[in-house]
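Hi there, hope your week has been kind to you so far. Do you reckon you could talk me through the fold, stretch by stretch? Thanks so much in advance, here it is.
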Amino acid sequence: MKPDISVIIPCYNSGQFLTRSVESILGQTFRKFEIIIINDGSTDKITLQILNKYKKNKKIKIVSKKNAGLPAARNSGIELSKSKYILMLDADDWLRLDTLEIFYNFLERNKKVSYVYSNIHLADEKKGVLKKNFNFFEQLFTNQIPYCVLFRKSILGKKFRYDQKMKKGFEDWDLNIRLGSSGYYGKCINKNLFNYNVSKQGMLLKSTLSSYSEIFRYIRNKNSSTYTFKSILSNYFRWRYTKSNYKLFLFLFYRIFLSILNDNQINYFFRKFYKYSTSNIMQEEDNINFKTLNKANKILHVITSLDVGGAEKALYLLIKNTKNSTNHEVICLKSKGYFYKKLVKLGVKVHILNMYPKRFNLLKQFKFYNLIKKIDYNILQTWLYHSDLISSFYSLFLNKRKRENIIWTIHNNNLELFKIGFLTKFVVYLCAILSHISPKKIVSVSKSSIKTHTKFGYNKKIFLHIPPIFETKNQPVKVKSRGDIFLKKVKKDSNTVYFGHLARWDVQKNQEFLIKTFGKIKTKKIKIFMAGKNINNQNTVLVKHIKDQNLKNKVVLLDNIENINLFFSKIDINLLPSLGESFPLSLCEAMLNKVPSVASDVGDNRNIIGNTGWVFSNKIKKDFLLKLNSSLEAIKDKRMWKTRKQECFDRIKNNFSNDNLIKKYYSIWTRDPYEA
């Protein structure tokens, strides 16, 4: 079988890493590959023993030659390759097991793209991620593309080979400049598919930084037509809208500074410049020790309400899952709600102000100001728009530390589709203006919320995406809830498919559309459990919708429930047909309980569900019904359904782990701008 990908691994005394590199290729999910190892005159026994071990493997070709340097070894591999694509891999680096499959599928779908690469995961001594978005203008001045690249072999002709004179490094930089100058461009996949050995980076920098200017001058002179004033200016305007760290500064730097500095000055400047560029794109992984909060960092939370809602629940679960809940204090602008007793039970001090949205009370405003002035806290975290506004406004009159350590938390996603009140909309616009002055960070629970709010004028630079914390542990059954008592007694019929919908009664949750669509399902053996605030028989509007669709025997209204895990244990398919969402907790909780979902394509729903369920468009009226019927067909295959349920659980555990989310909060809580 002819391979589609040739993985070329130059090797020179790399015994301690070589096995890891080769095994990462042999274990790939994509199987149509060959490995070409170019032994560039290795002398150590470990390397030679490992090479001898792999000689019997049919997927591996080992070619030994005299030491001629890395560029020559790579060129030898290109000449031996007969495949459609070529991937370069250093002997001390390794790949994620699905890298080849992702790279291959990308180039197969995007015929105009010449090569593809990914973000770099820094391994071993220093952990982190390098994000390498392609920008040819930046590429002219600093190497932006990693070693691990999947090329179309058709572009690597005799013209585009590695320069064998460049034995000091950066031969890949030279190649990429020549490719870009000829109209060949690459794309970066925003995933960490390539693991880079950091220990070699230190050695490489020591050997090359001293001669960085020399290397740059060599590349510039070799590609003189690309470095003309006209060409540089043209590339700047072509790539200026691409995310860039350097922009026009680089152009000015090249044209002015490089022409007047001597070699020693250039060497010094490049050291500083290179250090700046790498540190700027480095994104260190959060390595926060939970004990760091013992510095007496106290968090004061201000929230509009403590009633049943996504933001309120997220606040409660965030505090519940932190190591010391007494480090938190809460101010609620309105009256006591559902989560008041729960917070008090955790040992959290809660202040209730009993403010009314449409009634301005100067005395209560003054009380709020006195509270945030007197309470000793390090971080002020606000929840929902009114809290953001009032907290940031009064903080302007506090000391510098309190004024500059404010974090907003946004849970809403849609500000346009729904008829929000004039006052709320006015508050949003004021918050948009204030976002450029007050908050240190704005935490958005969904990526879609960031886009929505930046359109309204919010400060894009300070947004941080952290999904909300959600319940993961089994809860004891609460006998006080009528819904829980009912569910506890439910014995599922194996011939009936049970749907579930968990949300408060709200136009945004689209329950009317849910009932109408549910009434069109032709299958008789179906039932739906609906739970949430005001989802009960006293809700005359909802009851009428059910009656109109002749669903009285198929719909069970449970009202509020305490034990969500019990709820999800009684259903087969979760439904969330909302007109707007941000990051719905119920969706995550359902999947954590191994319940596939059918949800509308709003907010982060698609990102959460992935391939585990069904996402429909609200713009296509029949799409919801089609997806419901698809789920009913899928559940018939018991073996595949079992697999799908497990995939739901795995997706939440792997992508939205509470531990990782808590770490992100700790990272912003413990970063004090006044600390050295």
In short: Residues 290-465 form a domain with the Rossmann fold fold (CATH 3.40.50.2000). The chain has 27 helices and 23 strands. The chain has a mean pLDDT of 78.
